[in-house]
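Q: I'm writing up a methods section and want to include an example of the input and output format. Could you take the sequence below and give the corresponding predicted structure tokens, formatted cleanly so I can copy it straight into the document?
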Amino acid sequence: MKSDKFKSFVAVMVAVVTVLGALTACLASVAVSEASDMDFAGVDALIRGQRAEIINYVNAYEEYRAFTSYRRYLQLGYYLEQPDEVWGIASGISFYFFKPRYINPEDRSEYDLERQLQEAWADDAQSEDLNSTPYFLESDVERGRSSFLTGNMIVFALAFWFFTVAQTTEKKIKYFWAGLGILFGLFGIIGIVIGRYFL
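A: Here is the clean output for your methods example:
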């Protein structure tokens, strides 16, 4: 009778570690899925950032080219006896084709291209998520979690094996095997908690 109780207990423990192993596999799978989602979101943000940077560079250099035309007409006006018409063209260029706020107000000969690019990037960053780094960092965390939980499945496999050996053994050593099964099962449970909440 005592042997039947032991075998029933071991059978229940086999079922428990099997369910816990399946739970660990499920959690590892969820972590991999979340890592993939974070990778996708990171690549999406990276592409948006690259697109915004390219567009900003194209726009900034077009405006810088308009600024150089403005400077040319401005300088040309200094050499003419009646510069009003040429300076009018320069004024029109500055009004329609670039933002005068990026001109150095002291001598009006320098254009702050870097400031324009930084402001354009800041504007884009306010309307879209352009920072891919947090997504890739979170992806690394989720992949680490998945790897840890996958390794933890081995612990449950060992517990399952010890319980199986205990179930098939008739001698008193079966208690030793069952004890090892319980110990590894507890380690596996601790592994689940660590993998789920502390990684």
